């Protein structure tokens, strides 16, 4: 039986929940003995955890990059290290000091030196590490389709867009408000459902809000008719892995998304949704789906099939088992 140590930074973080925790029962069923070690702020406790890596066949470092001393301890102790990453942590989504930039650059270099293989959430992230000479496997963030009810599309006088996310990415919806306003002006009854820890205060169309929770998110999605994923283009967003799109497709919703990073890999233009590049194209795509129930149903069914075939936990568990 292969022994695996997973080094996690925060057991409540979304990345850990969906990329690690959900897979643990499936990997254990495949014969792996898995221990999850939580990195602490206490350096002595962390040193002991990293130094214990030699007792395992493989160490999986989940998401957070290493300080220089952590990298040295882990590399000396571990037989093999795999780094799992689903965000462009080497970049920033906000202005930061030169000191923060330097520290992040040093941590990136230390992490590169410490690992043997990278599991990245999309091709953009994988290529960053391939340029450093590391082998990388792309594994998107996936779902258990059985958790998601499938939307039963029907004619409606109040077609509803749905967006799932958090306050940190709500700005992306706000940036697309002119397009949503144009769509609302051309589509009678159009509404927006936000599933998040915060919603929009001022919007050019009626807003419904569902506070996000892990227990209710899947059921809340089918209250919508069309999933949206507006995303600007910058080094940070190119590293986003499009998990909300996988969720929309699992719920049988057609998707309208910016063709940025993993979005363009996940959405099949004209098959599971649309990838508009301008405000006018966004408005056209939304209006077309909002007024055509058959198209919504067709794209929703195609998206659900794609999740079941390619973006489900069982599929990813098989690939992880091979890597481990």
UniProtKB/TrEMBL annotation:
It comes from the Bacteria. Gene3D superfamilies: Glycogen Phosphorylase B. PANTHER family: GLYCOSYLTRANSFERASE. This is Glycosyltransferase family 4 protein.
């Amino acid at each position: 039986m292969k022994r695996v140590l997973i080094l996690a930074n925060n057991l409540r973080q979304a990345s850990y929940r969906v990329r690690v925790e959900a897979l643990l029962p499936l990997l254990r069923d495949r014969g792996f003995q898995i221990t999850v070690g939580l990195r602490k702020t206490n350096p002595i406790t962390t040193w002991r955890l990293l130094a214990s890596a030699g007792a395992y066949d493989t160490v999986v470092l989940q998401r957070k990059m290493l300080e220089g001393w952590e990298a040295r301890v882990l590399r000396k102790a571990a037989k093999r290290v795999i780094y799992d990453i689903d965000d462009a942590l080497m970049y920033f989504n906000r202005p930061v000091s030169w000191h923060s930039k330097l520290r992040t650059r040093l941590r990136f270099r230390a992490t590169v030196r410490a690992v043997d293989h990278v599991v990245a959430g999309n091709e953009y992230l994988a290529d960053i590490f391939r340029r450093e000479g590391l082998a990388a496997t792309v594994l998107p963030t996936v779902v258990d389709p059985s958790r998601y009810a499938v939307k039963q599309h029907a004619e409606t006088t109040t077609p509803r867009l749905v967006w799932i996310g958090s306050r940190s990415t709500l700005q992306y919806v706000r940036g697309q408000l002119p397009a949503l306003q144009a769509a609302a002006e051309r589509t009678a009854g159009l509404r927006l459902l936000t599933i998040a820890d915060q919603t929009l205060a001022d919007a050019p169309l009626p807003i419904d809000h569902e506070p996000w929770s892990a227990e209710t998110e899947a059921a809340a999605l089918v209250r919508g008719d069309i999933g949206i994923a507006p995303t600007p283009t910058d080094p940070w967003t190119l590293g986003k892995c499009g998990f909300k799109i996988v969720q929309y497709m699992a719920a049988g919703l057609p998707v309208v998304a910016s063709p940025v990073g993993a979005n363009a890999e996940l959405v099949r233009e004209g098959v599971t949704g649309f990838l508009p590049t301008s405000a006018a194209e966004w408005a056209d795509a939304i209006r077309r789906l909002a007024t055509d129930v058959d198209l919504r149903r067709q794209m929703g069914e195609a998206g659900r099939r794609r999740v079941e075939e390619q973006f489900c936990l069982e599929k990813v568990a098989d690939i992880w088992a091979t890597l481990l």
